[in-house]
Amino acid sequence: MSDSTVIEPTSVQTGSEVAATAPDNAPTPRMGWREAIGGVLNFVTTGARVMALAVAAVLLKERMHLLKARMHRDAAFAHRVAEMCGQAGVDGRFVARYHEVGTYFVGVAECADGVTAAADTMEARARGVVDAHDREYRGIYESVHASPYQQPTPGFNRVP
């Protein structure tokens, strides 16, 4: 009883036999655009984002130094105006307010020192993260892009 719809194999070939009969100009598997860009973006953008954080910390420090200088100038000006108002015979309440404003300006300048110290710590730690990231993944990144073959993801070969 023969069924004409059943397909039976006529010959079975191994992988090496198929490779031997394949044409020489067969395209080799290549890394696609998505895989190539994905690998680059994962490594490069992580470092770039943390480096951007370090740059933002540097800019914050510079702004805080400018703010501190400005607050000291404004405090000196407020105290000078208070003294001039006192010499001019202005009501004591207003003179006291000028001195109070000058004191608050000095307080803002002192707080700017705290923010500057925090930004300095943030910059140092961000640079440390970038360096650690580079030490950990630079070799993997370079070997993946040097080889035409798919590489295992980071941590795949790690032995517990």
N- and C-termini, Cα separation: 59 Å
Ranges where pLDDT stays below 50 over 5 or more residues in a row are none
Order of helices and strands: HHH
Q: Mean pLDDT, rounded to whole units?
A: 80
Radius of gyration: 35 Å
Binned, the helix content reads over 70%
Give the count of helical stretches: 3
The main β sheet shows up as: none
Query: In total, how many beta strands?
Result: 0
User: DSSP strand (E) fraction?
Assistant: under 5%
Helix and strand composition category? mainly alpha
Q: What's the shape?
A: rod-shaped
Distinctive features:
160 residues; mainly alpha
Write up this protein.
The chain has 160 residues and is mainly alpha-helical. The chain has a domain at 43-146. Helix content is 74%, strand content 0%. The protein is built from three helices and no strands. It has helices at 15-21, 33-88, 92-146. Helix 2 (33-88) packs antiparallel against helix 3 (92-146). It starts with 14 loop residues before the first helix and ends in a 14-residue tail after the last helix. The mean pLDDT is 80.
List strands and helices in order, with pairings.
Elements: H1 15-21, H2 33-88, H3 92-146
Helix pairs in contact: 2-3
Q: Could you give a quick summary of the protein structure above?
A:
It is built from 3 helices and no strands. With 160 residues, it is an all-alpha fold.
